[in-house]
Amino acid sequence: LSQTLNFGPEVGINLNNFLTNQSGYRSEFKTGLKAGINVNLPIARRSFINTGVFYVQRGQEANYETGGQSYKEYYNLGYIMVPFVYEHRFRLGTGRAGSIYLSGGPYLGYGLQGAISQYLVNENGNLSELSNEKISWGNGISQLKRMDFGMSAGIRYELIFGLYAKVEYNY
Length: 171
Fold this sequence. Notes:
Layout: E1 6-16, E2 26-28, E3 30-44, E4 47-66, E5 69-91, E6 99-121, E7 127-134, E8 147-158, E9 164-170
Antiparallel strand pairs: 1-3, 2-4, 3-4, 4-5, 5-6, 6-7, 6-8, 8-9
């Protein structure tokens, strides 16, 4: 790998859910797509700033009960995400085995679109749709904030020809 600016496509899947303290509300992971352009800016021999622009599908599946009735909700959200993380490379062996990268830093996201689908769950487990609405963006109690800011940490294994696999946690 050279010490020049590197960029290229990045496509993958992610698992999302929301953190909540609502009693009886069980959040489950939702699978989504992540796609965009990844940029590695070298800042030292083995150190990089990793950034880029990505479209990320986020959301969750949730189950809850109220008044003796069970409900299921699906949140489907689309965000533009821009990470700004520090990465450090550790070469494995003589370099032919590839490299391990450890990363950490902030990210910024902007909500583009989304929908919430709510279903009634009957005693047989069948779903009956109650509502399917576009996300209401804002600062109100029943709205989601468009701007998302958080921290990211990850590890990536990269082969000598540039193909890699990455695991990342955003909070």
